[in-house]
Amino acid sequence: MRKLDIGKSGLEGSVISLGCMRIAGLSHREADDLLAAAWESGIDFYDHADIYGGGKSEEVFAGALARSSIKRGDILLQSKCGIRAGMYDFSREHILGAVEGSLR
């Protein structure tokens, strides 16, 4: 899989990322299989947002990652915040809370 530089961060990630919006409804096995297939295809860049599945998508992904042999330092996680059901909230409080929640 071809890699791209991520801005001026010194990081690089796969040119294809796996969008994780819909994984909240997957079983453990389905999530494990999805992560394994993506990783084996060379995908190391995963897209999240705190609103995906009301936070459940991040939990499902975290569980699949924990059950895998993939090291956290070998992947890139992208997240978005400021989006709430029916509105946008770019306040400092919401952004810091969203980041803290995603890191858990």
Task: Write up what this structure looks like.
- This protein is 36% helix and 17% strand.
- By secondary structure, the protein is an alpha/beta fold.
- It has one domain (3-79).
- Helix 1 (28-40) crosses helix 2 (56-67).
- It is globular and about 40 Å long.
- The protein starts with a strand and ends with a helix.
Task: Give structural attributes.
three-stranded parallel beta sheet, globular, 7 strands, alpha/beta, 3 helices, 104 residues
Architecture blueprint of SSEs:
Layout: E1 3-5, E2 12-14, E3 18-19, H1 28-40, E4 45-47, H2 56-67, E5 76-78, E6 83-84, E7 87-88, H3 92-103
Parallel strand pairs: 3-4, 4-5
Antiparallel strand pairs: 1-2, 6-7
Helix pairs in contact: 1-2
Helicity range? 25-40%
Number of separate structural domains: 1
Count every beta strand, where a strand is a DSSP E run of 2 or more residues. 7
| Poorly predicted spans | none
Q: Give the integer mean of the pLDDT values.
A: 91
